[in-house]
Amino acid sequence: MDIDLYLERIKYKKDVSVNEKVLFELQQSHLKNVPFENLDIHYDREITLNIDAIYNKIVVQKRGGFCYELNGLFYRFLKEIGFDVKMISGRVYNTSKGYGKEYDHLAIIASIHNNDYLVDVGFGKFSYTPLLIKPGNRLSDDFGYFEFDTFDDDYLRVNEVVDEVSTPQYIFKTINRNFNEFQEMCMFHQTSKDSHFTQKKVISMITDTGRITLNDNQCKITKGTDTEIIEFKEETKFNELLKKHFDIEIQKSS
Asked: Whose CA is closest to 49, among 61, 65, 37?
């Protein structure tokens, strides 16, 4: 992995050192420059848990990815520059189905000065900065409020708090996982009709003023409190908006 090229990809121009401030800045830079997207699933391109392939896709080709790619690569990057990190498995909450299977989501825990932080650049709209894992402590973030609690003897849970209502995001164990352990669920999310990733194309990224999200028939652009929604039906329009807002051109495999 070319660390300098990775830093260029996320437009981080400061010196890199192992501390909380740099970790926070790296996550913010990543979220502002690398989109969350599932396009390969809809263009018949298999996603494999191969770091070299993921690096080429995200850093060289300037694409995005979903959790296994984004957090898998970010974990390797943080580890190479000296951070104490581990890969963890999350089980994502669904209001109708409850919690997903083990390895449903890949996230990161970074340890700095005896504090553990949940680091996540692959969960779509989530926290802007790493979250201090301290149950019962409400955390203020640019994207809202979050808090951790104990789900049971084995799992911790991260929740988003809106208007004093706490909504589960996912549960996780603090056990260090190997990248290849996520392969089965990575394939499930690419192929199963029960995976929400197979239902429609989506690409989303935060901006300096809000967020841009593009799917099969809609482009939603938020700037502060203002929201613009562009509706369309043609795939040519999708491709046009993909190029305009994300500078990505991709064709479905023949």
From this structure: 65
* 167/117 Cα distance (integer angstroms): 20
Instruction: Cite the beta strand spans of the chain per DSSP E.
Output: 36-37, 84-94, 98-99, 105-112, 115-119, 131-132, 139-141, 144-150, 156-162, 165-172, 202-206, 210-215, 218-223, 226-231
Q: Report DSSP state, residue 182.
A: G
Segment 38-57, tens digit of pLDDT: 999 999 899 999 999 999 99
Is the pTM here over 0.90, yes or no? yes
Per-residue pLDDT tens over the stretch 68-119: 999 999 999 999 999 999 999 999 999 888 999 999 999 999 999 999 999 9
Strand, helix or coil at 146?
Answer: strand
CA separation for the pair 97, 95 (Å, rounded): 6
Round to whole Å and give the CA distance between 113 and 21. Answer: 12
Going by C-beta distance under 8 Å and a sequence separation of 6 or more, which residues neighbour residue 200? 42, 215, 216
Q: How far is Cα 24 from Cα 30, in angstroms, rounded to an integer?
A: 10
- Give the residue numbers marked as catalytic: 67, 105, 120
Q: Residue 81, class by beta-carbon neighbours within 10 Å (0-12 exposed, 13-18 middle, 19+ buried)?
A: middle
Pull the structure tokens for residue 178: 């190997």
What separation, in Å, do the N-terminal and C-terminal C-alpha atoms of the chain show?
Answer: 31
Question: Would strands 105-112 and 98-99 be described as parallel, antiparallel, or unpaired?
Answer: unpaired
User: Over 190-240, what HEC string results?
Assistant: HHCCCCHHHCCCEEEEECCCEEEEEECCEEEEEECCEEEEEECCCHHHHHH
